[in-house]
Design a protein that fits this description.
The chain is an alpha+beta fold. It has 2 domains: 337 residues, Penicillin V Acylase, Chain A; 92 residues. It has 10 helices and 18 strands. The longest helix has 36 residues.
């Protein structure tokens, strides 16, 4: 089995750094090439005493009440790569590799911990401690690739956890952890970033590092320096991390949703590692990830979570989500109503016509056959469409607020859900139209020779 090259990028900014004065959380979720990532809504639920919840690998004690959530979920995993709950708590997680080996027994995956934090936390701080408590009790572990083993692909986890008031960074190694309250903006890219300046940590963390020869007693304790893995193949997070740091620094004080869309679609354009031929031909993983061997990894879903200072729960946030590499996709708005269109929740590791994720993935494969030739078709359609979505979102949210102020909650939810449906319909029409044009052209002009073998093998694997 080919080892996946680690890649994921998450960033968040407090209102002091944004144009609207509201917090924003964004993430690209990078997964195996053939792993669909549906978007699903789960209702709040009551649970009986003594009940268990079956996570990806292990069952744990259930709590009396779980929160309503929206989550982007690898098809075979119980947990989420990123998501948000009804209280406006949003979380993005990603892999980290350490000098300390991953536990060799099944525990909770990082995605499981993320979902559990959303299910059980009403604030970012509370969700963080849900995660740390479960981490200490059950451990983190298990294969993170479908059909694989812990030896194939497993990792420690990082989390950015945000609500409408606070943002917390949580970094873990085995059953230990360290946490830092974000004071402006932060980003993570598969590498530890907390050094000496942290606010909380697990009991015995420093002693744990000393015990394993990773810290010198009496010296200032540096979490990253103690546990980060400096090894070829696991270093791609460094250029991506600094790329995002520069982006946050450049736009600090005026960060808008559109800026986050832009960075999630980035391939190091204008730098010494910009891809020469297409986004998959770069010497390192890009923020917007495109599959190629031996990496075997693409961006499967993206989120830009725009939090609002509203007294109405339905308007606590706008969840801007897309599927597959965001440079070849479209952002769609969702709200805190518990509604996600059914077609967005379908998909496995095989192609399916009734899955919106697979439809967008099929378009992405067509575009990747000759990226320079076809990406313009998407950009031409997307730029005016997303600009219009932003304007209409503001208008729709204002109308919903008026309905909520008048006590018409059901009508407000119907309005917001209808807007989601309208945007999805427009995006799907554009995807269908561009896909037809690209595949018709490919029938006459097969695309770039250096991509043909890879794409043919990929299509055969997913039965497209």
């Amino acid at each position: 089995m080919n080892r996946m090259i680690p890649s994921c990028d998450t960033l968040a900014a407090l209102g002091s750094c944004t144009a609207t004065g509201c917090n924003i959380l964004a993430k690209n979720s990078d997964r195996d090439l053939v792993e669909s990532q549906p978007l699903i809504a789960f209702p709040a639920a009551d649970h009986a005493p003594g009940e268990k919840v079956q996570c990806t690998y292990i069952a744990i004690d259930q709590v009396p009440l779980t929160n309503r959530m929206i989550g982007s979920k690898p098809w075979w995993i119980w947990g989420f790569e990123h998501g948000v709950n009804e209280y406006g708590v949003g979380i993005g997680n990603e892999a980290a590799w350490s000098t300390m080996p991953v536990e060799q027994e099944n525990g909770l995956l990082g995605m499981d911990l993320l979902r559990l934090g959303l299910e059980r936390g009403k604030t970012a701080y509370e969700a963080m401690h849900v995660i740390t408590g479960l981490l200490e009790k059950y451990g983190q572990g298990g294969a993170c690739i479908y059909g694989g083993t812990i030896q194939d692909f497993a990792y420690h986890n990082l989390f950015l956890i945000a609500d409408r008031k606070e943002i917390w960074l949580l970094e873990t190694v085995c059953r230990h952890w360290v946490a830092k309250k974000v004071t402006d903006a932060w980003c993570i890219s598969n590498i530890y970033t907390i050094e000496e300046d942290f606010d909380e940590c697990s009991e015995g963390l420093v002693e744990y590092a000393i015990e394993h020869g990773l810290h010198t007693p009496g010296e200032p304790f540096n979490f990253s320096k103690s546990f980060i893995l400096f090894q070829s193949g696991f270093m791609s997070g460094h250029p991506r991390h600094y790329r995002m740091k520069e982006f946050l620094k450049k736009h600090k004080g005026s960060l808008a949703v559109e800026d986050f869309w832009s960075i999630l679609r980035d391939h190091f354009e204008g730098t010494v590692v910009e891809p020469r031929f297409d986004p998959a031909s770069v010497c390192d993983c890009t923020i917007c990830m495109h599959g190629e061997q031996p990496g075997a990894c693409i961006t499967a879903a993206s989120i830009v979570l725009e939090m609002h200072d509203s007294k109405y729960p339905e308007l606590f946030f706008t969840y801007w989500g897309s599927m597959c590499p965001p440079c070849a996709s479209f952002m769609i708005p969702f709200y805190n109503t518990g509604y996600i269109p059914e077609k967005l929740g379908k998909g496995t590791n095989k192609y399916s016509d009734d899955s919106f994720w697979w439809k967008v993935y099929r378009l992405n494969m067509g575009v990747e056959a000759n990226y320079g030739k076809y990406i313009g078709l998407i950009q031409e359609a997307r730029t005016p469409m997303e600009k219009a979505f932003r304007i209409r979102a503001s208008e729709t949210e204002s109308k919903a607020a008026e309905l909520l102020a008048a006590g018409k909650a059901a009508q407000a939810a119907e309005l917001l859900n209808s807007f989601t449906d309208q945007c999805l319909e427009e995006v799907e029409e554009a995807v269908d139209r561009i896909l037809a044009a690209v595949e018709a052209d490919l029938a006459l002009h097969p695309g770039q020779p250096y991509r043909q073998k890879y794409l043919a093998e990929l299509k055969a694997k997913v039965e497209l």
